[in-house]
## 1
Amino acid sequence: MVELVQFFQSYLEKQSLFRNKKVLQSNYTPEKIPYRNDQVKTIAGILAPALRMEKPSNIFLFGKTGSGKTVVTRYVTSQILNIAKEKNLPINIIYLNCKLKRVADTEYRMLAQLAREFGLNVPATGLPTDEIYKIFLRHIDSDKKLIIIILDEIDQLIKKAGDELLYNITRINSELKNAEISLIGISNDLLFMENVDPRVKSSLSEEELVFPPYDAIQLQGILRERSNIAFGDGVVGEGVIEKCAAYAAREHGDARRALELLRVAGEIAERNNKQSFDIEDIDGAEEKIERDKVLDLVHTQPKQFQLTLLAIFEISNSVDDGNPIFTGDIYEVYKDFCKKVALKPLTQRRVSDIIAELDMCGIINARVISKGRYGRTREIRLGIPQSTIPNIKNVLIEGLNL
DNA sequence: CGAGATTCATGTGAAGTATACCTTTAGGCTTAA
DNA sequence: AAGCCTAAAGGTATACTTCACATGAATCTCGTA
């Protein structure tokens, strides 16, 4: 007991490495966004009519992850919201991430989530979809207002729910008497619009904007700016920024990742009672990020997903490094695990879908190949570093009581 | 030797089933007049 | 008789199963040079 008190006291006395950690967190919206001036201006220009209570055009944003789509959108919309508040304009802005499982990955759930954002209490299941639709419309249309809905990673939603849903939302305005809705769609997939009904396409992307990835120099600029605010002097070692930038540039210029690397490296250093950190610590951070990403996902996923994942890890262990593994093998191992936990195994059909979903999450890389005479299967490789696997495996085994 | 047929192991689509949850409705009970 | 509660009925979304058919290159077959 005494020790704990001491621990907390010395913790408080200890000078934190961070001066302001918030600026490195992923939901932080900075004061200004370097290298994205054009996009900010364009979007601001498109949305500006909202302040005169005229409906802005729908916008569609394309660009790889971490290229600033979300930050720019959030930045511009929050500014608009500020002004609207000042002048008492009835403008609502809703941000919805369509990728989140069990939150907005079907038409029903998306509408339900939108309704919830307006403080409505809607059930998670049971109602007909058009009932939810009506509830939502009725509530919105009660008085005159302007609503801007941001649908992040909308491609994921369409892939699962079909493009009929897009048709429905683009038609919403014609059903409204008082309120008006503008849509901002955000997509990582540049080609995604190609297989969408042309009518929907033209109404959804009245304006289109592409976000190019950041290059290494720009990433360094961003990192430097933020790390100056985030860390005290002399905390960030020589070359750290450059290395973070290089890592992220390697992955198509993902700024979010670069910032995350920096933050996690700092957190690790702090936990180890270090006063600073340097290049070597970045690798540790990289590994921790990957591990946390998967662990987080693992915890939110149902048991069947966990078992499937465990089966994949198990096989990848016994197979030579780098060699792919196949669906059939996974299913066999998976069934064994099911027996051990006394859980009814799913059909191979379903497991096949689960594997496809794990692929979408990025934990594994799977692609369908034909092995000629020896049939057709998914060729699966791990999408995460080998070094993180034992750790994740242990967590899985523990969580499943194996 | 090469064109076409065959083959395997699984991908993939459509339709059906089970489960959990929602609203509506009808019946039964209580209560107040 | 009016009001309230409960349980059954009828409906939906979602996760999963069942059934059936699609895939596509390695391999096989067989006619031909």
Note: Residues 123-128, 131, 326-328, 348-349, 352-353, 356, 368, 370-378 of chain A lie near DNA strand B (CB under 10 Å from a C1').
## 2
Amino acid sequence: MNYWLMKSEPNIFSIDDLAKRPNQTEPWNGVRNYQVRNWLRDEFKVGDQAFFYHSSCETPGVVGIIEIVKAGYPEVSPWYCVDVKLIRKFKRLISLTEIRQHPALRNMRLLQKGSRLSITPVTMEEWKVILALE
DNA sequence: GCCAACGTTGGC
DNA sequence: GCCAACGTTGGC
């Protein structure tokens, strides 16, 4: 089972928008980066969990947990998407600033210089640390 | 709105 | 296959 972090701009699609969807499930589409496409196509498995991350907003950060309920399938050629379902929204936002300041999260892919990938892998250790911050 | 960083495009 | 130009991401 894999862990991921998936970015979305909340003014376009927020965790509250996901909560309002039927069955709280929605295709995660629009990825237009080949590296991320390959992860979606080859690495994402049903049951994988991901942090829902709000980007390009007043306070970027992790706002909740989602689960992959449908593995990679074609969107429009040559791109892929997955279906995600809301597990829960966090009681509070865990900000990028807070993540950046935490020693155990120093090596997170999210924090790497110049990393602009809309989806990044998360290790089990990082997953646990962030969960404990809530 | 700025700009650093990175990806993509396309002429050669 | 190189690389300049351009487009996009996303924090600040």
Note: DSSP finds four helices and six strands in chain A.
## 3
Amino acid sequence: MNYSCSTDTIKQYLQTIPIFKECSNDVLSSFSQHACIKPLKKGQVIFLSDEPATHLYVVLSGWISLFRETEDGEQAIIDILTTDALFGDTALFDQQIYSYSAEASDECKVIAIPLSVFKKEIETNHAFTLSFLSSISAARKKQDMELEHRILQTAPQRIGCFLLKLHANKKDDKTVITLPYDKTLIAARLGMKPETFSRALGKLKKEVDGMVVKGSTIELNELKDLATYSCRACSSISPCKT
Amino acid sequence: MNYSCSTDTIKQYLQTIPIFKECSNDVLSSFSQHACIKPLKKGQVIFLSDEPATHLYVVLSGWISLFRETEDGEQAIIDILTTDALFGDTALFDQQIYSYSAEASDECKVIAIPLSVFKKEIETNHAFTLSFLSSISAARKKQDMELEHRILQTAPQRIGCFLLKLHANKKDDKTVITLPYDKTLIAARLGMKPETFSRALGKLKKEVDGMVVKGSTIELNELKDLATYSCRACSSISPCKT
DNA sequence: CGGACAATTGAGAGACTTCAACAGTCGTGG
DNA sequence: CCACGACTGTTGAAGTCTCTCAATTGTCCG
């Protein structure tokens, strides 16, 4: 990969991303001219919650975690995003303030687009607004399911659901799943402590026939068995797609 | 109040609702002509999850609960809405299917607007799309906070936070808060069992100086005391506004 | 007044967390 | 090349929070 910030490189990247797909050449050029590619090291903070917002970001590679911190010093992970995902866009409305913090949990590459440029496009380009709206709407549904899962699913079920989603996003159809980041981080992502994750994964292994865990790879016999166990406590038509 | 479905009545109502506020007279007329006011009895179902969507709705009065049901027969309450809130709008994108069920938990009145009419407006009227986008964006942030609360707050804190939000939406500034609906329903809304709610409210009463509970009214000495206790485990700059 | 339902209370079980100890892995520096 | 330390991950025991089940009280309405 290439670390350049050249307009052409960015344009090429943007074209592959769903939300920008329907943009005309002019629009893409406009974004590309003002955007730049930012390589990030593990642990690097991109912005902090309640900070005045300047850019929104698109993930090119790696994993970005969105989180908030409380007065107590507790951390709540809101989401962990990878390629094609947009973040920082919540600052577009209201007071142009980020509503969460963002940090690279990996070696990452992101495209930074000035909020003002994006906002101008939203204000003047109706087609683009519609595709943005559609993506926001999808994100909202995803969040909705997230909330439901926290209420209804047990820790082992939540892990199962997480694995199913990982599998759904894979290119191949093998029943071997590789965990994308630290177990500690997955635990936080699923709203549980590392110890609970470890024990819950153990329980899941017992409950699901033919499931084998070796470090960060998980082998399954039948995906269906995992879905039967995990999706029992979920309202969506299983298996869950979000 | 008046149960008529006349265009003028609906237009009058719509004009008072933030998302429609910036609509031109023509747009309002277009909505009003196709919309109708629907009175609802307590317990009446408006639509079910996964059903093909026909209308979206605006709450005029009463409380509408949005929920989903799992294979197990468990129910997850997603939100409980009142005056000015929009629902059913998640069906605008994707497959025009409702992503949750909606039921009146009260005597309610709602305005039903055909999805097709709303969608057409979204597709052709840029100013309207922007104001819709802004409202969706706000809803998303609210949901975000909801998720955080479920992870970080204990049951008594969640109740405290709920009370603070009730107070923030009140017209007057009295420190007497009236619960808007059944305690059982509030419990479900906050993701806990009625028994837990009862005990948690008892605990909250003990923890917060000067708090008195009499049936469905709650008296407070200082709002600040409640916020200090509840917002400790929350990331937002207290008190929470969502 | 009685029935239906909301709300409370108690006891015990279950899920998750906390604290603490320990095993495994990886990279660094001697 | 090995030893050390830092870090991730696992395991045990005890504690906390919430849920479940069951019994009881309170309240509203016919």
Note: Chain B touches chain A through 46 residues (CB under 8 Å).
